[in-house]
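DM between two lab members

TW: hey, do you still have the Ubiquitin carboxyl-terminal hydrolase 47 entry open?
JB: yeah, one sec
JB: this one, 1323 aa:
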Amino acid sequence: ILPSEIPLGAEEPRVLCIIQDTTNAKTVNERLTLNLPASTALSKLYEDVAHKAGYVIGTFDLAWGNTSDMVSAVSVAPLDHSSEMSLSESGFEPGKRNFLQLTDKDGEQPQIASVSDSSGLDDSSQERFIGPLPRDGTAGCSSDYSSPSYSYSSILNKSETGYVGLVNQAMTCYLNSLLQTLFMTPEFRNALYNWEFEESEEDPVTSIPYQLQRLFVLLQTSKKRAIETTDVTRSFGWDSSEAWQQHDVQELCRVMFDALEQKWKQTEQADLINQLYQGKLKDYVRCLECGYESWRIDTYLDIPLVIRPFGASQAFGSVEEALQAFIQPETLDGPNQYFCERCKKKCDARKGLRFLHFPYLLTLQLKRFDFDYTTMHRIKLNDRMTFPEELDMSPFIDVEDEKSPQTESCTDSGAENEGSCHSDQMSNDFSTDDCVDEGICLDSTGSTERVLKPKSLLTFELFSVMVHSGSAAGGHYYACIKSFSDGQWYSFNDQHVSKITQDDIRKTYGGSSGSRGYYSSAFCAGPGMCGLIMSALYVVVSAEYLAVDDFPEHIKSLVQKEKESEEQEKRQREIERNTCKIKLFCMHPVKMLMMMESKLEVHKDKTLREATEMAYKLMELDGVVPLDCCRLVKYDEFHEYLERSYEGEEDTPMGLLLGGVKSSYMFDLLLETRRPEQVFQPYKPGEVMVKVHVVDLKSETIAPPISVRAYLNQTITEFKQLIAQATELSAETMRVVLERCYNDLRLLYVPNKTLKAEGFFRSNKVFVESSDSTDHQVTFTDSLLWKLLDRHGNTIRLLVLLPEQSPGTLTNRTNLSLQQQQQGSSTSDSQKSSDASDFEHIESPTQEADSNSSICAAADNRELENRIRAAAGGSGGASSDAENQFACEERSDSEVNNDRSTSSVDSDILSSSHSSDTLCNADSGPIQLANGLDSHSITSSRRSKAHEGKKETWDTAEEDSGTDSEYDDNGKSKAEAQYLYFKAEPCAHDESSGDAQKCLVVHVDKRITLAAFKQNLEPFVGVTSTQFKVFRVYANNQEFESVRLNETLSSFSDDNKITIRLGRALKKGEYRVKVYQLLVNEPEPCKFLVDTVFAKGMTVRQSKEELLPQLKEQCKLDLSIDRFRLRKKTWKNPGTVFLDYHVYEEDINISSNWEVFLEVLNEPEKMKSMSQLAVLTRRWRPATMKLEPFQEVVLESSSVEELKEKLSEISGIPLENLEFAKGRGTFPCDISVLEIHQDLDWNPKVSTLNVWPLYICDDGAVVFYRDSTEEPMDLSEDERNELMKKESSRLLKTGHRVSYSPRKEKALKIYLDGGPAKDPGQD
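TW: and the structure you got?
JB:
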């Protein structure tokens, strides 16, 4: 696009001017590039520079710059800004880079051009923000958005910009940028619309062109602000994990174009990609002696431009410079000489590229990502590189002066023999003028005609800029695209589309100038490195976008289909916005009286009656309870509180009753049921719910609760009368006890005090007793009522699995236990808790015609049933035998894990029951107890968990020893100090296995110590408490031993499982030790042998003597005491060898649940002193690709020389040929035989073993060694692959890594068959 007065201006030589602005620090690293005809006047050069730099003409000077040092001082006078001399006459050299410096004029900085200037630069517009959107509260980024000219209003909605954004699935910004660029390309979009999908031939879900077509239709016609790309990525064969993989946008472009070409085979669009994006270039080598040239023709879809040449510290300043370097020929001389077929010898030659044909859409890829060989990391080059709005490519076609006295002979490099200058391919594709097509061709498709442009008009207009903001590790892509319909630039940043200006485009040059974007501070080290160009598309002419009215019929049908789908989606969203979603509960009258939970979704305009019918069907009550016997009430599930009922509001919309449509509600709904003869009780707002438990002092029983509703302003006297009506007890002798929280029992004795003053809340729990006994005359804390309630609140239920070797029968043991309890409790109030009078005898309310009265259900469930059914009359008391309850009790969660193995963890976790609190199961609901104790309700269960933080203290000496003694200093059993409630009953652990007598259900006061608990279990186990161990079973069936005997069971909760194992319990100063056998040359080098006990002060030899009979009896190992050793075990690694005279706790630190290795010796022990060092060595034989078995070498010192001498002695390798390397990882330090020869650090240059990189300071280190003269085996490709499979299988079985290399990046792939092929053998 040139002035009409010089129509042949492009034919003349052109001058490449590179101008550095040195007027201020911000612009010193910026360079402007101008490519002007050699006849251009100096005054015109000043005008062009002023226009490009944004300065007023006459306020700056231009001077020659030093090409070797651009920042050096100007050594010559400025150029005359008024001169009409041409550039060639002024010393500019055509075809070369001419460096200039823009300097101050008369010591004053240049004036910035105003808005009205032709430059069009607005100073305020330079601060406009484009790129990734800022995040609120991002540290370090406040300055990025402090500019007064920036506001979020620049992010316009679709109605204002006319464009739709794309939703970022996770890290798919690179995909969004490419899709928006393709959509904004008229030729691509129109061609895609002309393609018609045949549903009979392909699945639309896996059809990439069809999903792109749908996406483009939505981008053009949708009313949404942004649309999803999940259908497109699904057609690629990607799963959800691909959304979290960021790739290079250029890589995606290549892969997607390949996929489209495959899908478009044998269609009109088969050659679309090549027509739009493919160019041709010549790759040549010319002999400098005879002029003979060998060449081949290559095609390209993009031109990769280097930002910074390899080894250079200075980057190219503009796209023009990078293009010039791209075609700059390279001289092949010296050792790189080229063999000339004409000269029949090696000659100096010139190798380079020439552009022959430019595509319709020219793609330039700036290679921002590079590899730093110093740090061995991938890096991103943030250097500034400018690009023009219009790019003239004519200087880059045949720029080399090819005039030569020699006759040029050209051969196609793909041909075997020499031929003419023009091959058949060349004659078909190009003109015969010097093998160069100096135009741009686009085959006629639709309304677009073939365009041919002479070399002088190879001018491309900037169309799209792909920007990457961030580092090589990650960042964000967005696109700046020019619309051909209005000429306006837009920023397509995922779902946000906004208008931008040329100034915003300039900010994507990179470098340190300009305002910083969000990702610059998050990812980039240097200041001001924000939006960076990745790909620029330049077009010659643009076609018209296909209007909606001009769509093909199949696209119109698709538009209508998408419109209907969008309308349906809109209606569904409208329904969702008007739907109330609330939790619904129901105590099902048939399904084991279980509280069922669901979610009720009801439109806000539905009435309460309609909502009740929906809840009735949702809870599957049809045929169980009549609909008119159900109602919805407001319910608080956390406090089990019925807030209010809705009498007379059956026709009220649910939106009004629930307070509108909300994302969550602070209350729930309960579908309440009743019997036909019953009447619903109204629940009024402001009432509080009280669970009333009746206590019988004579039988020492506590009945299940009865629900009573009261008001907070009622007095205690009025409250007693209310309870008397519900329980038929006397109000005059009634005692009411409020349980406010755990162990907080308050007697309500002030008649005129209100419930609110006493601390009543929404849901409350009280115990009432009304009798003529004298118990009410004593102090409350000394009364029998208090003792019963205290025991009731602290009793838990445990499931105890007895060992199989337990002698005797459970019946005998049960009787013995009861006798022992009666004898041991002579000084305790618990004497009344005999087998007949223990409060397991539960009163239950009368339930007329209730067929479920024999079902063993928890008290809370009965209470809920009572409350839901809302019995009109009071309930009497009917006794149920506790033994019958136990007999019919069946609990699936009583199945205790029978695994005998235990995990080895830190002693402070294993040794203390309370230290494992975090591993306890949190009860998620009411726990059903066989004895019906109500202390196991949700409320009490929460309180007991809160109390678990209170821990008992223990003796310091006992703590230091790792365990507690069961006896005090006087030899008296600690369990005798205080008796606490204990009762055990047989339980069928597993009916199918016949082990019904192997499990106990124990109800025990959790304040009992472990020592007392074990003594109470003695009759059931059949041995004394010192001869069995207690293991606590956790949710994942792991078993940890409880050893601190003076700790209580406060950390236990209902239905915790306990396993009893026979074995001597620990005494003071003793430690339980697990012994493993070390088998260095076995596939599994670590084998468990026995559990044993080591004591403080014991020598290693004494512990070996005690081990011998155990090993012989349990492991069938008959060993001599001098032919095995003990050594330290750290996970799987063997460590220090323990010598016989070492003393535990003096020479060897020991802890609870300790682990040691036992190693069988083939010869007498060589380790005699701690100064010696035992090293495990293994020879590597490269010739056979095998590793020999381990051999132990005992060194007298840490000398490398001694190690090599020992290795030479056992292997026969000459000392000068012996090389060694330390093994990596955990024992046995497995490594692939394909990697060991190169990957290990062989023959480190050290003299001692205890320094870097060896650090061999303890026994058990693994050392590989080899003969340096032994060459590795030569493997064929098949042999290598077979060996690789074997090694991978072997190393995977042993749990070792196959390779030490870091995880490789996932390759970007598009699957044409709908998904990746699955390997049937792959795990």
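TW: got it. The first helix runs from residue 42 to 53. The chain has a mean pLDDT of 74.
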